[in-house]
Structure formats: C-alpha cells, structure tokens
Amino acid sequence: MDLEREVEDMWKFLFRRTLAMLFTVWVVSIISFAVIQLPPGDYVTTLMSQMVSQGGRELTPEYAEQLRELYGLNESMYVQYGKWITNIIFKGQFGYSFVYKRDAVELITERMPMTFALSMSSFVLVWVIALPIGIYSAVRKYSIGDYIFTFLGFIGLAVPSFLLALILLFVSQKYLGQAMIGLFSQEFADAAWSWDKFVDMLKHLWIPTILIGLGGTAGLIRTMRANLLDELNKPYVETARAKGLSETRLLLKYPVRHALNPFVSTIGWTLPNLVAGEVIVAIVLNLPTSGPVLYRALQSQDMFVAAGFILLLSILTVIGTFISDLLLAVLDPRIRLR
Amino acid sequence: MSDTLIEVNDLKIHFFTDEGVVRAVDGVDLTIERGKTLCLVGESGCGKSVACRAFLQIVHSIGKIVSGEIIYHRRVDNNFEETIDIAQLNPKGRQIREIRGKEISMIFQEPMTSLSPMYTVGNQIMENILLHTNLSKEEARQLCVQLLDQVGIPQPHRLVDEYPFRLSGGMRQRAMIAMALSCNPTLLIADEPTTALDVTTQANILDLMRNIQKEYQMALLFITHDLGVVAEIADTVAVMYLGKIVESGDVDTIFNNPKHPYTQALLRSIPKISRTREKLDTIQGMVPNPYRRPGGCPFHPRCTQAMPECSTMVPSVTRFSDGHTTRCLLYENITTKQFAELS
Ligand SMILES: Nc1ncnc2c1ncn2[C@@H]1O[C@H](COP(=O)(O)OP(=O)(O)OP(=O)(O)O)[C@@H](O)[C@H]1O
Ligand code: SF4
Ligand SMILES: [Mg+2]
Fold it and tell me: Which residues of B touch A245 (CB under 8 A)?
C-alpha cells in the first residue's frame, strides 16, 4: 500500500463526509423551522393573550392583522422558510426579535460565542478528567480507587446540575458574600472586549464549566473503562507483552489506542448534552449565553430568535460529529482504508 | 557446558477464580535441549498454553505460579553460562522483559488477532528489533524486510507498510514468525501456530518452521494436539493430561512403544489412511470439569486399564531407559521389582 493511495482515500473520505454534513444541516434547518411553528398560534396570539392577562387593552383584530402582515406571518410555511433561509445564507440576516425588539442576529452574535466557549471548556474538562480516570479504573479494576471513582461518578450523574448550581449560589453568597453569577464582574459586564475582560471571564468560567461538565464525565469514565477492559485481554496485547515492552508503553500503544475509537465517537453525542446542560445552568447562574434567550424565545414564540439559535446549535453538533468522524479515520486505518 | 536449555521442575500454576481454584498446571516436569524440538501434546484445556506462557511470565494475572522452577541456562558467551529461575522473576520486571522477544519468543494460535490492526506489520516487527538491539530505525526496517522475505512473504518491500487486516491468515502468521525470529532467539515457543489455518497453509507454515529451526539452530517448543505434526517435527515429545505430563520421551519411543494408557489412546485416535474403513478409535469420556478434577490418577475415569487403586493413589514418575518416563500405576511395581529385567 502506498502513501499516495492512502492520501487519495482520505480525500474521498473527506468529500463523502462533507456532502453528508451539508445534507444534514439542510434537514436540520427545515426541522428547526418547523418545530417552532408547531405550537398553536403565533407571536401575535401570544402578545394578545399577554396584554389581556396584564389587564391591558385588547388588540383589535385589525391591528393584529396588521402586525401579522408586517412580519409576514400570514404567508404559507414554505414561503416563510424560503425567505428565512435565503436571508440567512445570502445576507446573514436571522430575522427580527419580537420580544427584544432588535435584530435577531445581534442577539445571536452576542450570545453564541459565550455558549461556544462554555461548551468547549466543559468538553475539554470532561475529556481531561474522564480519559485518565477511565484508564486507571480499567487497569486497576476492582481496586479501592476504582470503587471511589465509580461512586463519585454516580454522584455526578445523579445530582442534577441545576441543583449543584443552586447550592453553589447559596454557598458563595453565604461565605464569600457575593453570589457567583454571570460570566463577568460588574465593571466588565458592559465593557468592550479587552485583555482584562478576557481574564475576568476566565475567572468566572470555571464554575459553570465544572457544573456543566460533571454530569457527562461519569458516563464517559464508564465508557472508557468498559472499552479498555474489552481490549486488555486481546491477543495483540499478549503479543506486545511477549516482546518485552514495559507495561506502560504497551498499555498506551495498544489497548488504549484501540479503546479510544468508541470513545472518540462519543464526541457526537456529548456536544448536544453539554449544550442542553448549559441551558439550565445558564438560567440559574444568569449567564450571558444562548440558553436563557433561547428558553425565553421558545416561551413567547419569538420565532426568528428561536429558529436561529436552534439552527446554529444543531450545526455545532453536526460539526462535532464531523470532527469525531475525521478523528476516527485518522486513528483507525480500518475506517480510513476501506 | 550442558546441552540443556530449560528445565522445568514440578511447576504448578493455579487460577484463583470466583468459582474456585483451577489447577491448570499441576506438577509439570520438562526438559528442553538446545537446538532441539520438543512437542507438547494433549487435549484442549489440559494446560499447554498456560504452561508455556509461564516460560515468559505472561500467564493471565489471576493465574499464579504457586510452586516449582523454570531453570533457564543462559549462555552469556561461549564459555560462560548462568542459570536463572524464570519462575522467580517479577512478571513486570526488567530481567524477564529482556528475555522476552529476544532470547525466548513466542508465536500464538490466533494469527487474525495477534497483530494489532492499528499499526503496520513493519511497525510491529521493528518494535521488537528496536527494543532489544542498538540498530537504527533504518537498519531495523531493512532487517524487517529481510525477515519478511525469509519467511516467504511476497513483495516484502511493499508489505512491510501494509496493515495486518489486509493480509490473509497465513501471511499474518508468517509475519508473526518473522517478528519472533527478529532477535535470534534461543527458544521459540509456538502455541498451536497452525490450528487456525487451512490445511494447505498449515503444511506451508510447518515447513517454514522446520527450515528456520535448522537455520537458526534454536530450540523449538511446539504445542499441538495433532499427532501427525508431532511425527513430522519432534525430537522429543511430552504428553500432557489435566495439568500433568503423563509420558515423555523421544519421538520414536513414544510412537512405537507408548506406555501410558492415555498416550496409547491418543495414538489409536489418529486416523490411518491405510485403514480408512475401520472405525476411528476415539478416547471415551469427556475432559473433566476443571474445578472438580478426579482424585488418584486424573485419567482413571476414562482409562480402559484402570485398577481399583487408581482412584486413590496418585501415580509418580516411572523412568525407563533413555529418558522415557511415564506416570501410571501399571508400571510402578515393575520399577521396584523388575526394572532391571525390563531395561
Ligand atoms: N484466564 C483464565 N482464567 C481461568 N482459568 C483459566 C484461564 N486460562 C486458562 N484457564 C484454565 O486453565 C486450563 C488450561 O488452559 P489452557 O489454555 O492452558 O489449555 P490448552 O491445553 O492450551 O488448551 P487448547 O488446546 O484449547 O489451547 C483450562 O482448564 C482453563 O479452564
Ligand atoms: S494409573 Fe491407572 S488410571 Fe491412571 S493411567 Fe495408569 S492404569 Fe490408567
Ligand atoms: Mg492453548
């Protein structure tokens, strides 16, 4: 087998995967748009009932009709979708937020980077914790350490992250005299980006990072442990041992490398989990991420905002899966060289 | 300086499982001569693989060497020999790791899974060379290509960069042999190297092993349950039954003058081409449950010549002439009374 052919195979693989990814994104965009149209009524209906419940004046049907006309809510779903998606692709316009009375794209560019930063740092944290502990637990199966990690892992799995967040709020308020909320200190919250602001963000970031990451860590530790246990007694490990390799070198080069495969393919499903976990933690800790905005948008049928966020979050997930597929191909010649 | 390479004395390896203790190897004595081939034969589950893994201290971690010794006569140079008891070495220690793959190497039964699919054949063979010699990467690669050529792999320059999962079982086993040979071992252990292969490939691999053994002048411990193979390649034979060597001797003696009823039954079970019409004589009964091994002579529930005392008395080793030994009560009183007459 020559290098040229291997490189060519790799390009073919990339091409196939990219096509598949684009198709998935297209389907996802349709679904995102359809889902937020599912509940009965639209933004104007919500607005009307809000005004009634707040004891205000009722909207006249004519005015309601005017509003619908203004936002294009009367047109068929296909037309609405078509307008929406062409605006996104060709103009980078995500529509208008009825609730915030602002351009949806402003909200998105304000919030998405924070969500991205938080998800990434949680993801890195999960891996940094789960990988070595998983290896340790498999190699020292049924040792005291294994039991302790299993126990801690189950606690992490069982305690919901919002509860941890609430406890943390309480403790920080009571003992530090300041609730650990938000991602920035007061003086930086509305300031423009600067190095100091960045450092300030890092100082705040670790708390939600841990809260969001904790739940996923237990699952990944179990995955790594189980994968590695499967590999430890395979014949190729015995071959390597019979060569005289030291246990550590042997472990890392053979069984861990093999066990990494199914571990890498979990990237696809850890990302959406992290994003979902982020919504709850962000609401409790009042973080400037997309979670709280998305939540509110869904509640009040602020459709352009909701659809925009859902679309972007889904694309992130699809990209995550794409990256995990790529990594798998790099790691495993059996996938690369079909 | 002796011609003996390895002497195994009363080796016992027990597995401590949740269901109980498996006495997989239960008092094995063996001698391996320099440059000679010893065949270890016996039914499935009698402890052949466990015993030979002990030579490299790579028995599965729940298995422990509980007693006995594996004396390795290591030739340091042409006029000095040191003896090492391998059974006493730490399985993770430096000393045994220097022996593994260099002085004693091993080929396994499963060519399909004994090489990792993640690395190229060359990578996995060169690893052994780089570990035990001072060769550079480039030199190791050259040696690797040369070895692959020697074990009959076509286009070794190309296949050195091929992944194992793109090779056939026979080719993989050849690659394993190349790996085992790479550091000029004094002993090669082959644990049923042909069992997983088709008949033609089996014959080819067997030829190859015979040739390389002559060429490298190394000792070969060949494990099999195929007596046809034994007849072809063995100098001496050891017959194993339930963790014990029940009979051993040179190959002609074992085939022409077997003493132990188990060996006799094994030999009767070989299909003879000249007498195909005759019903195949198989050994009656099953291999007993490993957790509840019979007392007395372990073979007594299946032995056609069993005597009343066989179920209680454990036979000890009876020695005939020329290193022919057996463990059977039939011969025990003979040794004491009529040994002189017989030999
Ligand atoms: N990891 C293990 N755990 C528990 N028992 C084991 C283990 N490995 C081997 N044994 C036991 O040791 C005994 C001998 O096994 P071994 O693999 O040496 O047999 P064998 O003679 O090589 O058979 P085969 O011809 O099938 O390879 C078996 O009865 C088996 O139950
Ligand atoms: S000791 Fe008895 S049972 Fe065992 S082989 Fe000899 S005759 Fe058979
Ligand atoms: Mg075996």
Answer: 97, 127, 131
Domain range for A124 is 2-38+94-337
Give the global pTM.
Answer: 0.83
Chain B residues near any Cβ of chain A (below 8 Å)? 56, 58, 60, 92, 96-102, 105-106, 108, 110, 113-119, 124, 127-128, 131-132, 158, 161-163, 165-166, 176, 179
Ligand 1 atom closest to Cα of B50? Answer: 18
Decide: B315 and B327 in contact? Cβ < 8 Å.
yes
pLDDT given for residue A37 in this prediction: 77
Tokens, residue B174? 């050849």
Closest in A242, A258, A332 to B106, CB measured: A242
- For residue B169, what are its two tokens? 């079982």
> How would you write A189-210 as a 3-class SS string?
HCCCCCHHHHHHHHHHHHHHHH
Tokens 């509110």 belong to residue: A296
Q: ipTM > 0.90?
A: no
pLDDT, tens digit, 9 for 90 and up, residues A10-48:
788 888 888 988 898 899 888 888 877 777 777 777 777
Is residue B244 in contact with ligand 1, taking CB distance under 6 Å? Answer: no
* Euclidean distance between CA atoms A296 and A96, whole angstroms: 15
For chain B, which residues score pLDDT lower than 50? 273-280, 335-337, 339-343
What is the torsion angle, in degrees rounded to the nearest 10, for the CA atoms of residue A298, residue A300, residue A302 and residue A307? 10
User: Does residue A61 lie in a domain region?
Assistant: no
For residue A265, list its beta bridge partners: none
| Contact (CB, 8 A) for B101 and A243 | yes
Residue A56 is assigned to a structural domain of this protein: no
Residues β-bridged to residue B65: B13
Gap between the Cα atoms of A66 and A292, Å rounded: 30
A241/B128 CB distance under 8 A: no
Share of chain A above pLDDT 70, in %: 96
Q: What is the CATH number of the domain that holds A105?
A: 1.10.3720.10
| B49 touches ligand 1 (CB under 6 Å) | yes
Tell me if B108 and A239 make a contact (CB, 8 A cut-off): yes
Number of domains into which chain A is organized? 1
pLDDT of residue B173: 93
Of all atoms in ligand 1, which is nearest to the CA of residue B60?
A: 1
Average pLDDT over residues A238-247: 94
Whole-angstrom distance, CA of residue B245 vs CA of residue B21: 20
Please indicate whether, in this complex, the C-beta atoms of B113 and A333 are within 8 angstroms of each other: no
Q: How far out from the chain centre does Cα A208 lie?
A: 13
Token pair for residue A74?
Answer: 């009367």
Helix (H, G, I), strand (E, B) or coil at B14: strand
State the sign of the Cα–Cα–Cα–Cα dihedral A182, A186, A189, A193: negative
Say if A63 falls within a structural domain: no
CA nearest to A122, candidates A9, A44, A228, A216: A216
Asked if B162 lies within 8 A of A1 by C-beta distance, the reply is yes
* pLDDT 10s digits, A248-297: 999 999 999 999 988 888 887 777 777 777 888 888 888 888 888 888 88
Instruction: Confirm whether A73 is domain-assigned.
Output: no
Q: What residue has token string 């739940």?
A: A215
pLDDT band at A84 (very low <50, low <70, confident <90, very high): confident
Tens of pLDDT, residues A289-333: 888 888 888 888 788 888 888 888 888 888 888 888 888 888 888
Non-local (6+) Cβ contacts of A26 within 8 A are: none
Q: What is the largest CA-CA distance in chain A?
A: 86
* CB A145, CB A198: distance < 8 Å: no
